[in-house]
Prior knowledge:
Blueprint: H1 2-58, H2 70-81, H3 83-110, H4 114-128, H5 130-138, H6 143-153, H7 159-177, H8 181-213, H9 218-277
Amino acid sequence: MKKLLTLLMLAGVFTFSATAQGFSDSANDSTEVDSAAVDSAQAEEVYEEPVEEIAEIVAPEEEAAPSKGFHQVVKEQFIDGGPTFMGIVLACLILGLAIAIERIIHLNMASTNTKKLLADVEDALNAGGADAAKEVCRNTRGPVASIFTQGLMRMSEGIEMVEKSIIAYGSVEMGKLERGMIWISLFISLAPMLGFMGTVIGMIEAFDAIAEAGDVSPALVASGIKVALLTTVGGLIVAVILQLFYNYLVSKVDSIVNSMEDASISLVDLLVKHNLSK
Length: 278
């Protein structure tokens, strides 16, 4: 009897231990499965991020629209303003610049070193008289030398005739220096007026388009006003450019005229001194 109870107890212990071992094995298996699932999920996340980054890098970037150059913008605005008035304004600019450049070259060539010229004339008077001084003036370029030549030609008639000759011929040379300036002034006044005229005509056409459409469309009004104002902008730009050249030319002419007056006074003093030294 005791042996039977002992066998039953041993059988129960072995059965309980086997069952516990089974439960622990199943728990370990489930833990390993869960850990494997977590590892696989993390691996997928790790591999998904580079794939997305690579896809973003490989994906072609959107090409940016090429920016328009200054010449292209000016060309488009010129065409939008209309060829009629914009062409006339452009012609004013071209003609005005041509005259201004010609005047600048002429005035720069007319500039003379008056101090050197007076020194050469004095040396020529002391060495060879009036004829030698006139030869020096003829070989020198510029209005100052021309005035000296006219004064020396009247030297034999007295100092008063020399002064009158210098004053008269000085007015002639001043007129030559100012030649062409009136045309630049005309283009300065004409370009804005043509621009305003183009603006008024453009506004009239814009209102005609509104009347035909029967409705005030913002796009229609804005485009019409823009085209109308482009001629005004063009005329003002031309006037500003030509005004800068005109002011430079006026200052250059004034400088040459002042130099002519000072040199003429010095020449008269030199001739008086030469006559008294005889």
